[in-house]
Amino acid sequence: MDQANQISVTPLLKIRGLSDINYYNLLEDYKKHFCGNLVTFETNYKLLESFDVFFEPKQLPHLLGWDKILSSKMGAGKIIKLVEGEKITLESTRKHHRFPEARKRMENYNFLHEIFIHTSQKVCIMTRDMKPNSMKLDIVFYKEDEKEATILGLRKDYRMDYFVPTTLHTKSLNNQFSRRKRTSIKKVIWNNTEEEVHDEKGESKVHVEVGKEVIEVQAK
Predict the structure, then answer these.
(1) Cys-Cys with 40: which of 123, 157, 184, 189 at CB 3.0–4.6 Å?
(2) What is the pLDDT of residue 133?
(3) Which of 116, 140, 142, 114 is nearest to 129 (CA)?
(4) pLDDT at position 207 over 70
(5) What is the spatial distance between Cα 154 and Cα 137, in angstroms, rounded to a whole number?
(6) How far is it, in rounded angstroms, from Cα 141 to Cα 111?
(7) How far apart are CA 111 and CA 120, in angstroms?
(8) In the predicted model, what is the mean pLDDT of residues 180-207?
(9) Which residues have CB under 8 Å from 187's CB, separation 6+?
């Protein structure tokens, strides 16, 4: 049987607005499409010609601001269990005074797909030596629309020598990243033998890594 036919295709979650927000679905999408994977970015920056990003479920509560609308003493593991049990829902959280912060993050969730799956972000920003840098971010993915900028920040996990997604938030267009020098991304490699990817129209494909070459095979 063709390799492409052996891989189950799972659609990517699309968040168009408030009505699409579902904590359980967000967690499931993150687990299915990201968690357990190591993604390598090759760049034109001589001081960091490549870097790895690793995904695991415990990153998501802070990334999407779920910790802002629950007890500050509640760890990521506890939050994940509550979401898996559908104990945390849009209806149970939308009246919280900090829900607007989390809502904005969740509505920008698809930026992760753009960066890592569609690979439509061709540049990133190195921020380790930037001042001020209150969040101690090392690398930022950044995009602007007419009203604001969306930022995905990565921080180095020095215990494991890879970077992890740390924050997903928005800023005004006049911000500390807007004038920073951009680093070009030359290649994005999912370090799995086979990994499902999608084109920008959301159509499913199979991403097959052969040595260091990446090819795409249309899923049937």
Answers:
(1) 189
(2) 82
(3) 140
(4) no
(5) 6
(6) 9
(7) 10
(8) 66
(9) 40, 41, 42, 214
> Which pair of structure tokens corresponds to residue 207?
């991403």
Which pair of tokens denotes residue 147? 């009203």
CB burial string 45-81: b at 16+ within 10 A, e below: beeeeebbbbbebebbbbbbbbbbbbeeeeebeebbe
DSSP 164-189: EEEEEEEEESSSTTTTSPPEEEEEEE
User: How many C-beta atoms lie closer than 10 Å to residue 170's C-beta?
Assistant: 17
How far separated are the first and last CA of the chain, in Å rounded?
Answer: 12
Count CB atoms within 10 A of the CB of residue 99: 16
Q: Enter the pTM of the model.
A: 0.82
- What is the C-alpha separation between 39 and 204, in angstroms, rounded? 19
Mean pLDDT of the 37-50 span: 96
Going by pLDDT thresholds of 50, 70 and 90, the confidence category of residue 10 is confident
Q: Is the peptide bond before 57 cis (omega within 30 degrees of 0)?
A: no
